[in-house]
Amino acid sequence: MTSQIQRPIAQKFMLAVLLTTFSALLFAGLGMLAYDIHTFEDTWVNDLKAQANLVAGISVPTLEFDDAKVAHENLEQLKSKPAITAAAIYAANGKLFATYLAEADEQMRFPPAASRDSVSIGGDQIRLMRRIEKDGEFFGTVFLQARYPLAERVKSYSFILFVIMCVSLMVALLVSSWVQSAITGPIRALTEAVNQMIRRRDFSMRVDKTSNDETGVLVNAFNTMVAEVSQRTEALEKSNKALQFEMQERIEAQDALKHLNSTLEDRIARRTAELDRANEQLRQSQKLEAIGQLTGGVAHDFNNVLQVISGNLQLLQLNVAGNPEALKRIEYCGFAAERGAKLASQLLSFARRQPLQPVATNLGRIVRNMDELLRRALGESIDIRTIIAPELWNTLVDPNQIENVVLNLAINARDAMDGAGKLTIELGNTMLDADYVRETPEVSPGEYVMLAISDNGSGMTPEVMSRAFEPFFTTKREGQGTGLGLSMAYGFIKQSNGHIRLYSEPGHGTTIKIYLPRTRLVEVEVQDIRTSPAIGGDETILVVEDDLIVQATVIDLLTGLGYRVLKANDGLSALTILQSGVSVDLLFTDVVMPGPIRSPDLARQAKRLYPRIEVLFTSGYTQNAIVHGGRLDPGVELISKPYRREDLARKIRQLLGGVRGDEANASSQPPELSEPSEMLGGPAAAAPDDTPRPLGAGPDAASRPPSRRILVVEDNEDANVLLCELLKILGHAPTGVTHPQKAIDAFQSDSFDLLISDIRLPGFSGIELARQLLQGHPMLRVIFSSGFGSQAVGQVDYPAVYLPKPYSLKTLQSALEEAGA
């Protein structure tokens, strides 16, 4: 009987195992076959693409020089790739340039050149077309044809799959026989054990048996167990209730403990993150404070020097109006002074020391008014798109400074796009919620106006992004940027209680988002005095300036504008003049003054003595005298040093109420000022008594050294032109170039007695350039010019003279004499 009931279950079990094994192997094999075909195809396509890229790379020169023979020889190298049966190179006009066949095939027909890359698979062949490009220029097309043994691959894989399935089924058959024996054996033993229990105990509960197989045996065993289970159920239930109660209490205690531990870890993590952010903010604040103190200490004296130079150059420009050469040199100095003033202004902006005059402003109007300026500055190759949300909120910001920020960011975007691309300026209303502020604790939640500037340029790496706002950090080549554009924007936005974020990815462009707090004040349209006429007047102005050179320059400027000028060296002297009763229309005072009377106190006392007097402050660094919270005090008027004569004239007329109407005053005023192209100014020059007399003039002409042919290598065009002009004044014949290769070419076509080279040149060192030129011209004399100190020259193995920047005519002449020129 045992053998009769065992056989059906064993057969069912074995059949189920075999069917399951066969189905699993079949589906797995088909899936692996599909995956292998896909992988096989990708592998062949990628290999063929790689080979096409290699052929395209070596074919560019042959197409540039129309050398079909070399192109054919290059294709013959494909013999090392037996799988490639044919190849061809097409010229840019689509004509066959060179071909290759692994075997002679008269039926082979090369397809026409495709306009784009393509891959096609047909039967046992695969064909690929690849465009040949270099630096964006299209040169032609590469065609490759190779064998594609897919059928052989499928046949081989199917045979392997068949063998694996046969072996697996045999193993499954053996395993199933062992498993079914292992399962039914314990069941029979259990049945015998239950029958023994039945013989020793009396069980009354029964279950009807419906079959004679293993289930029937289990039913009989179950019936014998029910009686004893029923007897123990009541006691077991009571025990279970007590145990469940204890377990529930334990589980609740464990849950409470887990919750406490988890919240403790979260609190520790949050506290640690807050401390890290606080430390980072402290380090950043300390760094900014250090830079602020450094720039603030230097800016005042530096801007005073620039103001003296700028003012005197403007006065000198009026005196030499008929001398084109002198005007040109003055203009060069003016460009340099403007760059120095801009550099000082950007440093002050980054250090949050720039005096701001914020008013309720609609950024949409600002951006619309800048459209023509941006298109002129960026060029026609930049597609500028402006998106301004309707009903844009107002924000409290300095309009002139926000214009500078937008212009600087747009120019940075243009450089990142190599002069061609799409620039998007977007303005909208946004809300920064608590979740956003939690990640950036220096920002307060609330309503903001968002200004986003996006480009599709080269983007930034994470390393560059981490340093993008640092002053003087730039990825541009030397001479193409100061690295202060983003720093200035960062400092200005922070000083305006705003927030700036940078998003970028290499190859996918950059987006800079600026958030400025919303103001509910009505927009104030500030008059742009830059477009008003620059004229003078006949009022009385009291100039208070402790720097006598600056004072003399300002007095000359104001006198030239027609004003009556009184002067004082400090606040106490100025107060004495005011108390004397003399009529003063405008008090023009420096912010930082020596003596017991500070400039704000002087202004307040002047207002008490003369309620209608106007006060105009000037400074290169305002400190905290008239600036609080980064903003000018209400009612304070300031013109920052260095300033142009035209800007000073406009500012004074704005305060004094414009041009007076009576004809007598109008006739006594000077004519309207001519506008120079740029602000005049420049680097510090030698004092008049230190300026050398030009050679060839006066009694020194007899001792003038002979004229030398000098090659000037300087990548800054303005500095190059200026140095050549100075050398001409000294009686020499200079030739200026801006690149080392041009210097090498100049020596091949001409001869020179002296080389004057900057140390840092594009892609080359001036020291190495001189060494290379000395090999062919051993008598050449060398002068190195640099603003990084004489240690930048280092140890050279040939005679050389060091000329520090900035230099005057006298220091240049001394360097030439030291070099023997």
TrEMBL record:
<keyword id="KW-1133">Transmembrane helix</keyword>
<feature type="domain" description="Response regulatory">
    <location>
        <begin position="709"/>
        <end position="820"/>
    </location>
</feature>
<keyword id="KW-0597">Phosphoprotein</keyword>
<dbReference type="Pfam" id="PF00072">
    <property type="entry name" value="Response_reg"/>
</dbReference>
<keyword id="KW-0812">Transmembrane</keyword>
<protein>
    <recommendedName>
        <fullName>histidine kinase</fullName>
        <ecNumber>2.7.13.3</ecNumber>
    </recommendedName>
</protein>
<dbReference type="Pfam" id="PF17152">
    <property type="entry name" value="CHASE8"/>
</dbReference>
<feature type="transmembrane region" description="Helical">
    <location>
        <begin position="12"/>
        <end position="35"/>
    </location>
</feature>
<dbReference type="Pfam" id="PF02518">
    <property type="entry name" value="HATPase_c"/>
</dbReference>
<dbReference type="InterPro" id="IPR003594">
    <property type="entry name" value="HATPase_dom"/>
</dbReference>
<dbReference type="GO" id="GO:0000155">
    <property type="term" value="F:phosphorelay sensor kinase activity"/>
</dbReference>
<feature type="domain" description="Response regulatory">
    <location>
        <begin position="540"/>
        <end position="656"/>
    </location>
</feature>
<feature type="domain" description="HAMP">
    <location>
        <begin position="181"/>
        <end position="234"/>
    </location>
</feature>
<dbReference type="InterPro" id="IPR003660">
    <property type="entry name" value="HAMP_dom"/>
</dbReference>
<dbReference type="GO" id="GO:0016020">
    <property type="term" value="C:membrane"/>
</dbReference>
<dbReference type="InterPro" id="IPR036890">
    <property type="entry name" value="HATPase_C_sf"/>
</dbReference>
<dbReference type="InterPro" id="IPR005467">
    <property type="entry name" value="His_kinase_dom"/>
</dbReference>
<dbReference type="InterPro" id="IPR004358">
    <property type="entry name" value="Sig_transdc_His_kin-like_C"/>
</dbReference>
<feature type="modified residue" description="4-aspartylphosphate">
    <location>
        <position position="758"/>
    </location>
</feature>
<dbReference type="InterPro" id="IPR011006">
    <property type="entry name" value="CheY-like_superfamily"/>
</dbReference>
<keyword id="KW-0175">Coiled coil</keyword>
<feature type="domain" description="Histidine kinase">
    <location>
        <begin position="297"/>
        <end position="520"/>
    </location>
</feature>
<feature type="coiled-coil region">
    <location>
        <begin position="261"/>
        <end position="288"/>
    </location>
</feature>
<feature type="region of interest" description="Disordered">
    <location>
        <begin position="659"/>
        <end position="709"/>
    </location>
</feature>
<feature type="compositionally biased region" description="Low complexity">
    <location>
        <begin position="667"/>
        <end position="689"/>
    </location>
</feature>
<keyword id="KW-0808">Transferase</keyword>
<feature type="modified residue" description="4-aspartylphosphate">
    <location>
        <position position="590"/>
    </location>
</feature>
<dbReference type="InterPro" id="IPR001789">
    <property type="entry name" value="Sig_transdc_resp-reg_receiver"/>
</dbReference>
<dbReference type="InterPro" id="IPR033417">
    <property type="entry name" value="CHASE8"/>
</dbReference>
<feature type="transmembrane region" description="Helical">
    <location>
        <begin position="157"/>
        <end position="179"/>
    </location>
</feature>
<keyword id="KW-0472">Membrane</keyword>
<dbReference type="InterPro" id="IPR003661">
    <property type="entry name" value="HisK_dim/P_dom"/>
</dbReference>
<keyword id="KW-0418">Kinase</keyword>
<dbReference type="Pfam" id="PF00672">
    <property type="entry name" value="HAMP"/>
</dbReference>
<feature type="transmembrane region" description="Helical">
    <location>
        <begin position="83"/>
        <end position="102"/>
    </location>
</feature>
<dbReference type="InterPro" id="IPR036097">
    <property type="entry name" value="HisK_dim/P_sf"/>
</dbReference>
